[in-house]
Amino acid sequence: MENNSRQNILEKISAAQTERSVFFQKEIAQSIYKPILPDSLICFKNELESINGRFILCDDENDLYQKLKLFVDERGLPFLYCRDNYIASQLKKNEITFSNQEADFLLMEAGITGCEFMIARTGSVVVSSATQSGRQMNVFPPIHIVLANISQLLDYPEDAYNAIQQKYGDALPSNISTITGPSRTADIEKTLVLGAHGPKEFIVFITRL
Fold first, then answer.
1. Domain 34-207 belongs to what topology?
2. Of 124, 137, 149, 201, whose CA–CA distance to 175 is shortest?
3. How far apart, in whole angstroms, are the C-alpha atoms of residue 145 and residue 162?
4. At 89, is the secondary structure helix, strand, or coil?
5. What are phi and psi of 80, to 5 degrees?
6. What is the pTM of this model?
7. Tens digit of each residue's pLDDT (9 = 90 or more) over 133-159
8. Rounded to an integer, what distance in angstroms lies between the CA atom of residue 113 and that of residue 167?
9. CA angle, residues 131, 137, 142, in degrees to nearest 5
10. What are the structural domain ranges in the chain?
11. pLDDT at 154
């Protein structure tokens, strides 16, 4: 009797899995997204700006740091907080003041990080705890600056998730997050408030090369 009951349960689980597989296959076959128009880069720009993010396109890395330096000077930022060694080396090379000292963490006005990937359809940036920037840098800075390359730009969320899986295999980061614009809420009197639970400004610098 016990074996029969166990077999019945296993058969029901198998049937449910088969039905679920068919369901998802049918759903995936139907397009659930708007098309990427006119191309991935412009789609990402439009989506990011529609959610109060800022997009800055750069010809190459040299152009990126020149534009970043101009941004820092225009905003009068005392320093950029950075935990990424490579980005820090480039900031130093381009004479952009930065700090990675814990004593300055709570004093930062702007933090700078890299990212894993970008999603064109939603204007989102995918980050993970595997980077040197860690988790705090994605939520704490009042101004979050992300540096990225066009090679990291993918069309849809599932493309980014598949790319993360391919990149890390069985050693997935403990935290994988998708950032879609600056933090915002409309819970208070239905009025949109930016920076409610994280960065008030979200800026993505993207290089073509």
1. Rossmann fold (3.40.50)
2. 137
3. 25
4. helix
5. -105, 135
6. 0.80
7. 988 998 899 999 999 999 999 999 999
8. 19
9. 155
10. 1-30, 34-207
11. 96
